[in-house]
Amino acid sequence: MPLYHDDDQTMLAETASQFMREEGAIAKQLRHWRDRDCKDGFGHDLWKQMAEMGFTGMLVSEEDGGLGMGQVEANIVLEEIGRNLTPSPFLTSSVLAATALKHADNSARERWLPGLVSGDHVYSVAIDEGAKHRPERIAMKAEKSGNGFRLSGTKDFVLHGASADMLIVAARTSGSDTDKDGVTLFAVPKDASGLDHEAVRLVDSSMATHTRFDGVELDGDAVIGEVDGGREILDVMLRAGRVGAAAEGVGVASGAMDMTVDYLKQRKQFGRLIGEFQGLQHRAAHLYSEVEIARAVTIKAAQLHDGGSEKADLMASVAKAKVARAAGLAVREGVQMHGGIGMTDEYDIGFYMKRDRALQEFLGDQYYHANRVAELSGY
Amino acid sequence: MAETDLESFRAEAREWLEANCPPEMREPVRDEGDVYWGGRNASFKSEAQKAWFEACRDKGYTVPEWPKPYGGAGLSPAEGKILRQEMARINARPPLSSFGIWMLGPALLHFGTEAQKQRFLNEIARGEIRWCQGYSEPGSGSDLVSMQTYGEDKGDHWIVNGQKIWTSYADEADWIFCLVRTDKENKYQGITFMLFDMTNEGVSTKPIKLISGNSPFCETFMDDVTVPKSYGEDIPGYVGEINRGWDVAKYLLGHEREMISATGGGDRASSLGAVSARQGELDPVLRAELALFDVDALSFTAMSEKFMDELKASKGHPAQPNMLKYAGTELNKRRHELIMAAGGSRALEWESEETQGGKPARSWLRTKANSIEGGTSEVMLNVIAKRILDLPGA
After folding, report:
1. Do A156 and A240 belong together in one domain?
2. Do A142 and A207 reside in the same domain of the chain?
3. Does B391 sit within 8 Å of A261, measured CB to CB?
4. What CATH number is attached to the domain comprising A329?
């Protein structure tokens, strides 16, 4: 498969680009909700609009009411979300949860997918335990209780946790913390008793929770996939999320870069446009190279993920790490090249820096993924 | 061409290679002697090298995608790709390497007259004439267009005086394609892309010893050298038009960067970290550097693939090869820094048998030229700033 978009994908990109530019713009969404101290961190109206556009269910199969598209298509939307810093639960609901729910039985799919496709529901995932992403270590307990399970423990960095109508939770049903097996995925509804969210606003104005599971009782049908056999689904879900986060990061990087290059063509000092200075030109050109390479490896990773290639895990980590490095460079150079105005809240470039910081951390930072590249390569 | 035709071509190619590529020619290239460059004074290192070259020459496989009348096999790009894949599969060495194939050939195919192509392309394809390239001058490196080597118009010939530098293997080449100023008033439209014999009176060469200890480049001096304007009917002694040699040079530079783009980043098949770890335990910080390198190398591989895909579909920005040249050569330099670090004191050995005559150290030093030759990294960044980012005054 060539590493560029075909005609249908190009059309989707144009549609998504226009939609996010108009409806998802910083002034209309991120800054608007931030200034109103929004407890969700995103606008539900926009989420409904995204449903009308068909975005929310793009990864959901046609039999289940979705569009049956792949990660390459979801990434197209995510790149535009990144470029406009559009706050939405798309990555957690339409990519992570949707990928996990592909492996759920009929009744679970019937229960959860229509709300996702219609934009009435918001979903998220509860994986991390602690401040760093370490999904190899799952300590949270899910003990047998009657016909179901009782969950006890705490999950961190649950994005949109307090707004989510359902959380996909990785918990341990057998074995010890670091065992590969013995992990089970559960779909935990919002109203489950014993669920306690401590909501926290993050640097990028998004909302996350530390979520405490205080003996949360679940029916047996809350299990996604097999009991003790959740690791495989978890891995595929995380891979989709990482490749998706990489695409969003490419959008963040591109948005920051474009804004900065534009600024170099407007700002005058010493009687010249600052873009005439070679000291800045070379840094901008280097940044361009890094962002282009990050974009290429992200398309590659999405194609391999969709094709179920044996290299998909490796390339997902390569993409997540590479994008983190390129986007980090883009936002740092962005603020620096804007000079003093780049430090002001009034100017948007700072939002890119903040969003990049949060996105870097989500589902594993560059160090986690570079280490994973080494491990998967055998050293 | 239909899939089935391509598959039957693959079967044919495989069968032909099986029958014609001797086992010795499927071994990795160990040193310069293993590379066959052709030319008047060429000699074969082994019977196998000779047999492999001659089989390819007769089949048109020294230049598989050139048209048959010019010594090629007339393969389509898709067939050419399959042949390369099949050759790579059995690790077949290139039967013939030459600047004629890589550089002059593409220029002639694009700008040459029919009779020029008939003569020069066949000579290249058959390995009869070895060419070298005369571009840079001591005072004209990155600023190539400032070059001074001058050809005085004498009617049916020029008298050329000047000096070229970084002429690859000029001391072993038969002919040179050379940029010569033919109009001092016109900077860009005053250069002619001349072709002449290195045995002409007044041409001399002097090898330059590099920091790697090897001498792949020469200085080439031209002292009242006579260059005819014609070598026969419809065979001009120059490519393109008189005073329009800069167009040819630019085309070739683009072609060269495209070629580097397609192959850039060095040996990318295996993880550098995995290879290094096999030599011994890695310091944790070195392991981390290797992991970050592998991230960049695998990402760059995807970029090269994307570039080639877009090239075939005529998509992508025309200045993109400059970006790949920049990123690929910088990456390769980093690769060799890490190879030296992982190799430790063994990698310092300059002559030992264990290092095949100091291969790690010499290669490490050689790669420092990657970001200088064919346009420096700084020039690449200038081009990106100007042509892609459209920055002012760039």
Report:
1. no
2. yes
3. yes
4. 1.20.140.10
Q: Residue A1: inside a domain, yes or no? A: no
Structural domain ending residue among the three candidates A198, A228, A258 = A228
Exposure class string for B157-186: b at 16+ Cβ within 10 A, else e: bbbbbbbbbbbbbbbbbbbbbbbbbbbeee
3-state class percentages of chain B: helix first, strand second, coil last, to nearest 5: 50, 15, 35
List of chain A residues whose C-beta atoms are within 8 Å of the C-beta of residue B294: 318, 370, 373-374, 377
Nearest to B295 among A300, A318, A379 (CB): A318
Interface test with A, best of B270, B283, B299 (most A CBs within 10 A): B299
Give per-residue burial for A43-79: e unless 16+ CB within 10 Å, then b. Answer: beebbebbbebebbbbbbbeebbbbebbbbbbbbbbb
Any domain includes A327:
yes
| Number of independent structural domains in chain A | 3
Instruction: For residue A106, tell me if it sits in a domain.
Output: yes
Question: Which of these three, A228, A260, A294, is where a domain ends?
Answer: A228
- Taking an 8 Å cut-off on Cβ atoms, the answer to whether A373 and B295 are in contact is yes
CA dihedral of residues A368, A372, A374, A376 (deg, nearest 10):
180
In a shared domain, residues A136 and A103? no
Query: Is the same domain home to A313 and A358?
Result: yes
Please indicate, yes or no, whether residues A95 and A176 belong to a single structural domain of this protein: no
Domain identity same for A168 and A273: no
CATH superfamily of B131-244: Butyryl-CoA Dehydrogenase, subunit A, domain 2 (2.40.110.10)
Provide CB contacts within 8 A for A191, sequence distance 6+: none
Q: What does the DSSP assignment read for A26-79?
A: TTTTHHHHHHTT-SSSS-HHHHHHHHHTT-TTTTS-TTTTS----HHHHHHHHH
Domain ranges, ordered by start, for chain B: 3-97, 131-244, 264-388
**H or E element, residue B158:** strand B157-168
Which of B287, B323, B390 lies closest to A292 in CB terms?
B323
At CA B15, angle to CA B9 and CA B19, rounded to 5? Answer: 145
Of A4, A281, A292, the CB nearest to B394: A281
Q: Is residue A371 part of a domain?
A: yes
Full DSSP string of A145-186: ETTEEEEEEEEEEEETTTT-SEEEEEEESSS-TT-SSSEEEE
Mutant choice from A289, A323, A329 vs B, greatest count of B C-beta within 10 A: A289
Span B264-388: which CATH code? 1.20.140.10
Q: Please tell me which residue of chain A has the smallest CA distance to B283.
A: A379
379 residues of chain A, pLDDT tens digit each: 889 999 999 999 999 999 999 999 999 999 999 999 999 999 999 999 999 999 999 999 999 999 999 999 999 999 999 999 999 999 999 999 999 999 999 999 999 999 999 999 999 999 999 999 999 999 999 999 999 999 999 999 999 999 999 999 999 999 999 899 999 999 999 999 999 999 999 999 999 999 999 999 999 999 999 999 999 999 999 999 999 999 999 999 999 999 999 999 999 999 999 999 999 999 999 999 999 999 999 999 999 999 999 999 999 999 999 999 999 999 999 999 999 999 999 999 999 999 999 999 999 999 999 999 999 999 9
Contact A321, A366 (CB under 8 A): yes
User: Chain B interface residues facing chain A, Cβ-Cβ under 8 Å?
Assistant: 271, 273-274, 276-277, 282, 287-288, 290-292, 294-296, 298-300, 302-303, 305-307, 309-310, 312-313, 315-316, 320, 323, 326-327, 378, 380-382, 384-385, 388-394
DSSP 3-state assignment of B357? coil
Q: Are residues A252 and A372 in the same domain?
A: yes
- B3-97 in CATH: which number? 1.10.540
Among A273, A284, A377, beta carbon nearest to B273: A377
Same domain, A347 and A334: yes
